Amino acid sequence: MVEVKIVNRSPHELPQYATAQSAGMDVRAWLEQPLTLAPLERALVHTGLYIELPAGWECQVRPRSGLALKRGLTVLNTPGTIDSDYRGEIGIILVNLSNEAQTIADGERIAQLVIARHDTAQWLPVASLEASDRGAGGFGSTGTE
User: Fold this and answer.
1) How far apart are alpha carbons 3 and 17 in whole angstroms?
2) Residue ranges of domains in the chain, CATH in brackets
3) pLDDT, tens digit, for every residue of 114-125?
4) What is the 3-state secondary structure of the chain?
5) What pTM does this model have?
């Protein structure tokens, strides 16, 4: 378990895991008034949360499956990444992919946050790559079954 410093300027509770085995913590909207998104409209939704992650960790912003299935609301840049050196407010970019306007209320659970380790890569320029069974095949080259 990693400890993450957090400042909560909203009146809402801190993000929480819904169950003991959940990977993501539900995060809530912090709105002065309800926000209505027309079909295909997007908006940056405030949370009032600010975090300080240790180096080597990121916070991923992911959609909530129930919102996506039932209302067509999803996180536009999923998964969004919050880097360990970012100290600004966590904002959630929501988009309405449904055919109807959708209203988000203050305090509504709008996304989930997943805290994950990551490595830093260093490029190693070479003249060629080793062959593999797949080769350059992509975009459906491995079939559907």
Assistant:
1) 15
2) 5-117 (2.70.40.10)
3) 999 999 999 999
4) CCCCEEEECCCCCCCEECCCCCCCEEEECCCCCCEEECCCCEEEEECCEEEECCCCEEEEEECCHHHHHHHCEEECCCCEEECCCCCCCCEEEEEECCCCCEEECCCCEEEEEEEEECCCCCCCCCCCCCCCCCCCCCCCCCCCC
5) 0.89
